[in-house]
Fold each of these.
Amino acid sequence: MSMEQVLLDIQRQWFGTHFEYLQSNHEGVLIDRLQEAATETDLSGIVINAGGYAHTSVALRDAVEYVMQQNIPVVDVHISDIRSREVFRQPELLTDVCALTIIGHGINGYKEAVDYIVHLDR
């Protein structure tokens, strides 16, 4: 299932809620968007799958921490169970600065993350 299909499913499940989707293989693009998001007053939360950057990027971690300091919850999603993968994938730099980390629930992790944020916003 593509991310576009996952997003369509999420939009159907939470009809009337606005979602924005960004995918980039460039660390700086992700950091820039997180910094922009920190200034948005109508943002309920962020779901992030940082891929390999979750294991390596202190800069991305700092950006996520800054967003959280602005009272915008960030949920970290890993499709696979990183705890059962290669040793270098097991350290996770985002977990301690995120509101929630979902590991190994497949693409359903995205829906769980949105559900968490939607219920926080009530």
Amino acid sequence: MKKNPWIAAVLNFFFMGLGTLYIGRRKLTGAGLTLAAIALTYVELQLQAAAPALYPIMFGAVFVANTVLAIDGYNEAKM
């Protein structure tokens, strides 16, 4: 069953790996990205409190990763 590319993109943008799991082709990758997202969220929250000057760098890196994953989810769902 063909999946909606926009749903995959939005899911991957807001929470790494969920769009990949939604598509269902790379389940291990999706699960790994989801676990990594949980760990990164924890690190990001700790970094915000412990080293506020580094937080924008972490936020930017996560934003770039989520954008790339959103594009990947969109393209994969179109296949």
